[in-house]
Specification:
Oligomer: single chain
Structural class: mainly beta
CATH architecture: Beta Barrel
Strand content: over 45%
Strand order of the largest sheet: 1-2-3-6-7-8-9-10
Keywords: Signal
Organism: Flagellimonas marinaquae
Protein name: Outer membrane protein beta-barrel domain-containing protein
Length: 174
């Protein structure tokens, strides 16, 4: 009798998990948006503003967790003046610093309207002389409508210099 009870409880739990996954899967999967950031660390000596495009596709793993892929484009506007790094000074017309991040994404949903997560991957350097580097972007997001999310994030790219940035973004969910 005990074995039948355990089997029935396990079947009920599996059924409930599939039904909650089905409800979660009905939510949107494709995301597109923009963000603006303020660089700090070594890069702040060279630039003071960043703007970017965010694209992502997520799959529901459960009611609380999404995993997916993210990419986009980041353009850091460089100050075209003299930059003093202490041991050497750069002068001249500097190109903007550009990255194309390619990353795995994970989101945890404590509630439907609030999410925590991170993107981890590689930021491909687009402009000449930019080698790219390891890309890490933890974030916190809040749904402000049925198909709109506002998020704040910290971006870290391990390059030849310290690229760190705080960003505010808006995503549209499709």
């Amino acid at each position: 009798m005990k074995n039948k009870t355990y089997v029935l409880v396990i079947i009920a739990l599996i059924t409930l998990s599939f039904s909650s996954m089905a409800q979660r899967v009905d939510r949107t999967n494709f995301k597109a948006g923009v963000h603006a950031g303020v660089p700090f660390g070594d890069i702040s000596d060279l630039a003071n503003f960043e703007i970017g495009l965010d694209l992502g596709y997520h799959w529901a793993l459960s009611e609380l967790i999404d995993a997916g892929l993210s990419t986009g484009f980041m353009n850091v506007f460089v100050n075209n003046d003299t930059v003093d790094f202490g041991s050497f000074v750069l002068e001249g017309d500097f190109p903007n610093i550009q990255y194309l991040p390619v990353a795995a994404a994970l989101r945890i949903y404590p509630t439907y309207d609030f999410k925590l997560g991170a993107d981890v991957g590689y930021a491909v350097g687009v402009n000449q002389g930019n080698s790219g580097g390891l890309y890490i972007r933890p974030m916190v997001g809040v749904n402000v409508g049925r198909s709109t999310e506002v998020n704040i994030s910290y971006v870290k790219i391990s390059d030849d210099y310290d690229f760190s940035m705080a960003a505010l973004g808006i995503l549209f969910l499709f």
